[in-house]
Amino acid sequence: MHRITLKDKVFIPYISSDKILKSVSAMAKKINIELENEYPVFLVVLNGSFMFAADLLKEVTIPCEISFIKLTSYEGITSSGQVSELIGLTEDVTQRTVVIVEDIVDTGVTIQKLVSLLQAKNVKQIKIASFLFKPEAYHKNIKVDYVGMEIPNDFVVGYGLDYDGMGRNMNAVYVLDSN
Questions:
Q1: Predicted confidence (pLDDT) per residue in 22-34, tens digit
Q2: Active-site residue flag, 18
Q3: What CATH code would you report for 19-73+81-151?
Q4: What is the rounded CA–CA span in Å between residue 111 and residue 79?
């Protein structure tokens, strides 16, 4: 891993691909045990969650369905505080267990919007699986059930996470260089 430059920002290595895959595997094992008697719908939040979801769902061995929703709440390196639904949920999730698959939970604005949307569809239960979680930034009362890794409130890219659309394709995570 080496320093990278995306547009006008420099990022330094933060989480290796090996550490990522171990974390994702451990999460999948927990989901397989806890949701063994369910037939969950994994609702993948695009675009950021695509790499995490692919790796996670390769290791989920219980019967399930996968669907996608596209939301946006970021402008540059900061959250706008507003969530826009770009591609909506089309599956019937009535009385189903839904697992929201997120790349990162920081402020919780996106999670709050999704939970509200799903509750209106009369789901059985909602579980949240997030690759990264920023407890310092999170100020909501919604439980994040499956967390790959907790990180400080730093801006990160890679493994699906981006800076203005760039950096999603990297198999490791990089943090904004503060120097």
A1: 999 999 999 999 9
A2: no
A3: 3.40.50.2020
A4: 13
> What's the angle, vertex CA 177, arms to CA 173 and CA 179, rounded to 5?
165
The residue among 76, 132, 126 whose CA lies nearest residue 107 is: 132
**Per-residue 3-state assignment (H helix, E strand, C coil) for 19-61:** HHHHHHHHHHHHHHHHCCCCCCEEEEEECCCHHHHHHHHHHCC
User: What pTM value is reported for the model?
Assistant: 0.90
Residue in 18, 55, 103, 106 annotated catalytic? 106
Cα(78)–Cα(57) distance, rounded to whole angstroms? 29
Tens digit of each residue's pLDDT (9 = 90 or more) over 48-94: 999 999 999 999 999 999 999 987 665 555 555 565 555 567 788 99
Domain ranges, ordered by start, for the chain: 19-73+81-151
DSSP 73-142: EEETTEEEEEEEEEE---S--TT-EEEEEEEEESS-HHHHHHHHHHHTTT-SEEEEEEEEE-TTT---S-
- Looking up tokens 């799903």 gives 118
Radius of gyration in angstroms for the set of CA atoms belonging to the chain, rounded to a whole number: 16
